[in-house]
Amino acid sequence: MDILPVEIFASIAQYLSIDELVTCCSICKSWREIFGHDLLWRSRCDQSLAEYLRKTDSIVEPHFVSLLPDSSTLSPIGEWRLSYMRQIHLWENWRLGRCVRQQFDSSESAHPQCTFLTDDLVLRIYGNSVGVWDVYKDPSDLSEPMCLFPQWDVDLCQMFGKDKVVVVQNIAVLVFSYEVHSTMWPLDFVFFFNEPEKRPEKYVEDMAMPVLKEDESYSIRFAVVGNVFVGCQKNEQIMHVWNLETGQKLKEEILSTNVKCSIKELYHSKTSQDILVDACEENGSFYNFHVYNVNRLEFLPFRSRHKLYGIISKKCCIHGDYIAIRLDFNLYIYNYKTCKLINIFKKVVADPQVLNDLFVFIESPNLIDFRSFNMLFACDPSAPDKDRFLTRLNTQRFSVIGGKFYIYDKSIKETVSSGDSDAGSTGWRDLRSKRGEKSVLEYFERKVWHIHKKRGPVKTKSRVFWYRETANVVANKSCTRVISSNLTGHLSGEEQFWLHTFW
């Protein structure tokens, strides 16, 4: 076997399960060398996750400890096999609900939005300000490192490239250089996306603000794909395409249709350089869907036209080669590369979301009878005839964490005494009832699941997300940290933030 090239064994390993691959490694020294080769294990790992876990110490007990050979005659475990072991340890922490919880200081602003800038930096967006927390060890407030326009709220703040941060405030787009140890990040440039060039001024306070009509304020639609920004003002046909690295306007793209349309939404793909463009015809009844590629700066051949009959909001998502479009109670799945409709689902009552390359949605068997149990489904667009039934639940809400786990909220009613303390309870208390009388406590039980490629849905023991109805859960890219929030007081509206570390 030693004379065969490792590529042959890599081809064989494609047909082996992880358990079988580990068994091969335990046969003898030569097999350990061959079946422990990096080429065989690299494809089993999440490439973006491997580097982060290798450099970051685990703080959750039991800590990850790399196995050392029992004998000095054995060679060390290969780096990519170690990466896979770290990854499995992380998912085991999720499955068993092992994590370290830390509480953040409550914000003085009402209901700030929290998200991750990087795996270790948390953004707290409130109005026209952005605060940054460094959560690598203990949450430490880095105050407000960016000077922004005071007139407009922040619509987006995210990192692109290696050390650049883009902030969108209405039609203004600001690009900063992220510096780890700096309390103020330098501003590279600013452009207003409906103008032909970026502004020459170095500071926002020196810039003349454009005058917007009342109906133009807060009516923008935009998408950031890699280092490209695409923006448009609502009810217009023009898309403004900019290079975020240079601040150069690349193109003004006019939506080409046979009838007059206005752009309503832009949906960007996380797996390609494509954007789904949702445009409404002038009569308001028909919607047209197009796909724009920011590399080629042109529309792809895909076209789809649908009539919206009811008042139910529409929702779309684009992932891989596929598009999911929900209109009224119908969900349409397209392969936009081949321009083919591959499936239609009826009685869909929740917007589609992407989870492990699957489109996940909720179907209701009886739209009239609200007492009926809804069903959570997952559609694999590459195999549309093999839909997966995930669970039956009596709710119309679910959410995805980090693209790997999903939560559904199960509505539960319990009769409790209104005079009891509700400290640490998982729901709303009816404050209108008289003290001492029995009242109904209604809350949402948040269950965390993971979809296994072969076994289907796998329930985890993570009970750390049992919060009130208004709670939100956001994960970083590596799924090693999660930010959640819940209201601490029913009348005061104070919000509490928690950091959950799973590594």
UniProtKB/TrEMBL annotation:
InterPro entries: F-box-like_dom_sf, F-box_dom. This is F-box domain-containing protein. Residues 1-44 form the F-box domain. Pfam families: F-box-like. Gene3D superfamilies: 1.20.1280.50. It comes from the Eukaryota.
